[in-house]
Design a protein that fits this description.
heterodimer, A: mainly alpha, 2 domains, 8 helices, B: mainly alpha
């Protein structure tokens, strides 16, 4: 999968270079800027991951968010995703690292989807725009969508 | 934003300090942590440059203005397509989406459109999606989109219709009108 990604990127990059050197330079600058801006949180998330896989027993991780964790695992990862404010640029590497540890896709989906659709920390801002009731309802509906998506992914990937 | 970055750096320094001390004192847990950290870092660095370059190319070659231009008026079913694209081009999390929803509101977009946008923006931001595909693979992303896009479309329409019947208005804009 990595190879496919590199080939696609290289191909598009070459194509872009042929079309316009200037624009391609700007694109690379954007890429570099974004990379440096997330570097600290990225390293931190990876450090946290390393600490957890070293010090938390594998059986324990598997029990709570492993392949057999089912609805409990979904609930736990939904909770974590809802309260976290991690940028997606750091969250997806974490998800991939978790996948490498054998955490199933449906747990990852519950976490990453709730991270982006349900906001407990950002709730005060949302309340200002939507009003308390509508903001609450929107978050609850989003939570339900996350559960449905996680369950469909569980079924599709046979987990 | 700045403060959180400093905090991150402090925490990372503590982490590296822990690793350093562990090496000197031959503390097994710390050495194991360092190995886990390095191996996951290498794995991620194989993907990260591609993901960011793809995002950079996307931002340079595809113009956001074209999308915005089509959004002023309510244009039926097409409106939902444009709103999907607008969500695709949004940057930042939901907290950036709310001010934009307000702008849409002022431009006369219906509540159905606005709430559909708030749903789409969480699941269809293109840079995020590029990132997701890079790290979790295309099949995962396709399944996720096939579930969430129709659901949020349906929810946006139903929710928008109900709220309209109840004469609901976005808060900030009601304040602005007073």
């Amino acid at each position: 999968m990595n190879i496919f990604l590199w080939i696609t990127t290289a191909g598009l990059l070459i194509f872009s270079f042929i079309k316009s050197t200037e624009k391609t330079k700007v694109a690379l600058k954007i890429a570099f800027k974004k990379f440096t801006s997330i570097l600290s949180i990225f390293l931190l998330v990876m450090a946290g991951f390393a600490l957890i896989v070293t010090f938390v027993p594998t059986e324990l991780i598997q029990k709570y968010i492993g392949i057999e964790s089912g609805m409990k695992g979904i609930a736990l990862s939904l909770g974590l995703g809802s309260v976290s404010v991690m940028p997606g640029f750091a969250a997806f590497p974490l998800c991939a690292a978790l996948k490498g540890e054998g955490i199933p896709y449906y747990i990852i989906a519950a976490f990453s989807l709730s991270l982006m659709n349900v906001g407990i920390v950002t709730f005060p801002i949302e309340k200002k725009f939507l009003g308390l009731r509508v903001a609450l309802i929107r978050n609850l509906i989003a939570l339900v969508v996350c559960v449905i998506a996680a369950l469909v992914i569980k079924i599709v990937f046979g987990e | 934003m700045k403060k959180s970055k400093i905090l991150n750096l402090v925490l990372i320094s503590i982490f590296f300090g822990f690793i350093g001390v562990s090496y000197f004192t031959n503390y097994e847990g710390g050495v194991k942590t360092a190995n886990a950290f390095l191996s996951v870092l290498i794995e991620m660095l194989k993907i990260l440059p591609c993901a960011f370059i793809l995002i950079g190319l996307f931002e340079v070659w595809i113009k956001k203005e074209t999308i915005i231009r089509h959004l002023g008026e309510n244009c039926g079913i097409k409106g939902y397509l444009w709103i999907l694209l607008l969500a695709g081009f949004s940057v930042g999390g939901l907290y950036v989406a709310f001010p934009l929803a307000e702008t849409l509101n002022k431009k006369g977009a219906s509540l159905k459109i606005i709430f559909t946008y708030l749903g789409f923006v969480g699941v269809f931001r293109i840079p995020m999606t590029i990132f997701e595909i890079s790290f979790l693979g295309l099949p995962f992303t396709i399944v996720r989109l096939m579930v969430t896009i129709p659901l949020f479309l349906l929810i946006g329409i139903v929710f928008g219709t109900i709220l309209k019947k109840r004469d609901y208005k976005l808060k900030e804009s009601t304040n602005a009108q007073q």
